[in-house]
Specification:
5-stranded antiparallel sheet; about 10% helix; N-terminal domain of TfIIb; about 30% strand; about 60 residues
Length: about 60
């Protein structure tokens, strides 16, 4: 994930910062506990495509 791109991308729901989870290839919003997938190197920043994090799931970063 390009560091410059990560600096400008924000959560589409709360506009908060995102954390790149390299192992799962996701961008994670800690505030909303949503994980946005990265498919073929492209972040899918759609709320409907986001995965809700399990309450016990640790947020990387």
């Amino acid at each position: 994930m390009d560091a410059k791109l990560l600096e400008i991308l924000v959560c589409p729901v709360c506009k908060g910062p995102l954390v790149f989870d390299k192992t799962k290839q996701e961008l994670v919003c800690k505030g909303d506990r949503l994980a946005y997938p990265i498919r073929d190197g492209i972040p899918v920043m759609l709320e409907g495509e986001a995965r809700e994090l399990d309450p016990t799931e640790e947020v990387g970063g």
